[in-house]
Structure formats: C-alpha cells, structure tokens
Amino acid sequence: MLQTDPHYFILKSSILVAIFATLDSWKLALAISMTLTLTYRYVIAYLCGYTAMPIMDMVCFLADDKSPLNIMSCIMMTDKTDVAGLRAIYGKVIRNHPKMYSYIHTCLGDYYYKPCEMPIEDLLAKMVTFLPEGEVNC
Question: Could you read off the pLDDT of 62-95 as tens digits, one per residue?
Fold first, then answer.
C-alpha cells in the first residue's frame, strides 16, 4: 500500500496557515487558499508533463491492503487470432485512455500519471504476441 508522507501534508498546511497569517482580510485569504488547494495539483502536472490522478483513482492507493483493484488482462487462445487486429484495437484504447499508457509518479505526496517513454508500437509488440503451436505447455 502506498502511504502519504506526513512531511508534505505539514508543508502544504503550513503554506495555508501562512496565507491566513499574512493577509489582513480573511475573505481574501480564504479565496486564495481555496484556489491553491483546488489547482496546485493541475499546475504541477502541467509544469512536469504529468496528468493529475483523479481522486477516485487515488483512493485505490490510500485504501486498505485487502481492497480489490481491477487490472485489465486478456488471454485469447485460438488458432485464428489476428495479432495485427488485436494490436490495432489495443493501440486505439491506449491512445484514447492516457492512463493505460502511463505509470504512477508521486510529487509532493500526490499521485500523477506519467506517460511511458516506450513508443506505443513497441509496447503493443510486447503486449500482444503470438505463440506458435507447441510452445505453450498446459
């Protein structure tokens, strides 16, 4: 289970307290604090080239060790499997859903999707392969 570092929580909370301490108007301090709280993840993601992980995805990593997590897996065992067709289908899914082609990166205690450096074509070649008959022992 991934854990949140308490140092980052203290740092982010201290910044919000400092905003309230330095400004005379609590309304302005509240507006600035809310704006920072709601937007800083997207600013970091933009500057670093990441995608901010949605809260619903983040909950999977902050939950209990025994929480279920869905992982996509596909095994097709036919002699007439069209490998090029499967690569085209998976390629379309990967291009339309960036998190399918990303890995998880942390920055200041928050989770982001960082795109893989591997070209999509190389990933598809590794992901969809054809094993000739006789190479699979069941």
Answer: 666 666 665 655 565 566 667 778 888 888 888 8
Q: What is the spatial distance between Cα 25 and Cα 31, in angstroms, rounded to a whole number?
A: 10
DSSP state at residue 128: S
In angstroms, rounded to a whole number, what is the distance separating the alpha carbons of residues 7 and 54?
A: 22
Domain boundaries, the chain: 6-127
Is the pTM of the predicted complex or chain greater than 0.85? no
DSSP H or E segment with residue 19 = helix 6-22
Measured from the Cβ of residue 112, the count of other Cβ atoms closer than 10 Å reads 21
How far apart, in whole angstroms, are the C-alpha atoms of residue 138 and residue 75?
14
